[in-house]
Amino acid sequence: MGGKSKFQDYQHEFSKMLTWSYLKGLVVNPAQLPFAALLLIITELVINVLVVERVPYTEIDWKAYMQECEGFLNGTLDYSQLRGDTGPLVYPAGFVYIYSLFYYLTGQGENIRLAQYIFIGIYLLQLCLVLRIYIKTKKVPPYVLVITILTSYRIHSIYVLRLFNDPIAVLFLYAALNFFMDSKWYLGSIFYSLGVSVKMNILLYAPALFFFYLTNLGFKGTIIQLFICGAIQLVLGLPFLISSPVAYLKGSFDIGRVFNHTWTVNYRFLDVDVFENKCFHLSLLAIHILLLIIFIPMCVKYFNSYCRLKFVQKQVQPQIDAKNIENKRKSKIKKDLKKKLNKKNEEQENLSKEQKDFLNSFEVMLQKSSQKGNKVAKKPVEVVEEDPHYSINFDILSQLFILPMFIVNFIGVMCARSLHYQFYSWYFHSLPYLLWSNNFSVIVRFLLLALIEMCWNTYPSTDLTSALLHVCHIIVLYGIYRKISVELNMASKLE
Prior knowledge:
Layout: H1 2-17, H2 20-28, H3 33-54, H4 62-73, E1 83-84, E2 87-88, H5 93-105, H6 112-137, H7 142-150, H8 153-162, H9 166-181, H10 185-198, H11 206-243, H12 245-252, H13 272-275, H14 278-347, H15 353-370, H16 399-414, H17 431-435, H18 442-457, H19 463-494
Antiparallel strand pairs: 1-2
């Protein structure tokens, strides 16, 4: 009976998967993203392998990375003395350790093909973490992610043809976001700090993360998490800090570094003198701070809602689990009792053929007399009682955490003094989420995605593409601001 019941369940599930509504949901329903996510990861594996095997590798920074790490491996701990063909080392200690490992694995950096396959692994791991966020938040339809991720030429180039350190920093960041969603604060802080130790751009998330700490953990808990982040930076940088602290801090965390206008994606339309002017840099910083002042209060309201609902989850979830356990126990008792009754019936003496015929005819006679004119089934209908299973999907609460984090990072990218091509990885995977967090039509959303991708794919950048990138960014941010403002106003009226 048990095997038959399971077979019927499987048959029911399979027939359900063949329905039009289910198949349509695989394309448009964010709740059915896991299936599309699996196919997407498999497809990305094939695409990246084909890219590595068929598209020529272009040297940009890999050789310089190896030269910088070679100096460290030879015993040099003075950051001012660690240099490559592109100039001095400008990344924190975590970068040095990770790329020193690559130095050994790839035969002093000579085995480029092996390095590319390592970066395929990095890309697929990051993609798994990104898709897990989208699965939990249930915000973006599967077809959007499939189209956006598979068609980005620039992202595939950054990860497997250029071997930049930006993807590694972003990998740690997405790991941290996943840990924070699961309320694993210590692991989240550790991985966030590891991301900062590879490249400083991860600090763009810091304003939102600070208030997220404060809302959920209070002042004391926030101090503990900040101490963990700082301690990791101290431990990783300790050899260099002991040798030459000023050189390390100036080299790895130089916020005043002047970027080369040659590689800029977002400010090609400016003259070099204006681009390198300190007043221009200070103006961007002022705009950055102003935008944070506008958006942080909104983010805090989201974090407060997240914190309250998480508290409700902690109160309700144990009751739900206890009820399901009780239902499961009762179900087991019923099944055991049914098995005993069946066994008892089997042990009874078999009736003779004449006795069975008599009982069957007697049963038919009773049925006809009790319900005159009604058709009587020859066999009784077997009623299968399904045990109730109670659940509340709290994963969607992650929207209240992820959106503020992506917004604050997006503001940082908008106000960056210069964006180089590899910086696209800083926010590419968050763009679908940001665009589906506003009230634009689907056509406008895809148009913005296409225009942003075009701007990043134009090399060298032009006055038009640089200006267009800013226009697209402003439209995206304004759309988010308008939607959040409406939602918060409605929520305040309901309260």
